[in-house]
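Before any further analysis, backbone shapes were mapped to integers, which produced the following:

***
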Amino acid sequence: MIFKNFIAGPFQANNYLLIDETTQKAVLIDCSGEVGDVIETLKEHNASLEKILLTHAHIDHIAGCYDLKEQTGAKIFVNEEDMFLIKNTQKQLQMFGLPPEKEAPVDGFIKDGETIHIGEIKIKAIHTPGHTKGGMCYLVEDKLFSGDTLFLGSVGRTDLPGGDYNELENSISNKIFTLEGDLDIYSGHGPKTTLEYEKKNNPFFGQNPIA
């Protein structure tokens, strides 16, 4: 599997491209904008982008969806509970003083526990509400793509529409920290971390919490 990280958009969000080397089929986790590098990488590997999987629908993770779908034909998937954010794309942009963007044309919904196949790549979808109602994490082999649910030494904010700290705490404690193995965690912003590190050191949920 070929794995690439692209940092894009005004909020410097991580977008993760996975390419199955056997079939040259690819999937992108989140799409923040500035899609040229993704297109060039797909061409470099003679790969076709099959799906765009969204961890959630805040504007900094969806702003490039329309353009990338137009150029690749990839289908876009999100948890249904975040459709209200998709429908409020313009309000999200206005909130941060950003210019208008076309709404992400969603093709379908991702459900908790669903397995998505991209060539020989298997992706397990895990519903982790808290940062947003429809927050999703994606487990691929020994990698967990956590969106804005869990970061290196931190957690996602819950003060935006759809946020709920109690839900976030439950998602991390009961959906992420119960996963097996010392997974590498790739979040929506910032550097990677590991599951064991966060279990032991995360100031919100580790062995020595700050509150």
The chain has a mean pLDDT of 94. The domain at 2-147 is CATH 3.60.15.10 (Metallo-beta-lactamase; Chain A). The CA atoms of residues 66 and 97 lie 20 Å apart. The radius of gyration is 16 Å.
